[in-house]
Amino acid sequence: NVGAIMRSAAAFNACAIVTQDRHAPPESGTLAKSASGALEVLPWVRVVNLARALEEVADAGYWRIGLDGEAESTLAQALPAGPVALVLGAEGDGLRHNIVQHCDAVARLPISEAMESLNVSNAAAIALYAAATRETL
Fold this sequence. Notes:
alpha/beta; Alpha/beta knot; two-stranded parallel sheet; 17% strand
């Protein structure tokens, strides 16, 4: 999933991908293959403490939006005009409570009630597309 997320992030001009060091896969041939060249063009920042990194992201002027299928607001409603950091959780477990506490907003993708959730790489691609194509005033 990290490789697929990196590929989407590069495709939609994200400035970087940030992962927690101990929960991310190693850079390998398999990851490089699934990233389809994104490893060469997209910075991958590995951090020890994701909550602290999210604080630094906010200090840099980014609005932090956590994706959660149970959120009341949709991503379109939560997207600001300025820089945004999309925060995704692990498949199944979702966002950890401490990480949600470091988000400015929590939003969901408006998917059919017939489906419980999306694969995290699919959700990332849709959210990246939404952020890349939003109309800013």
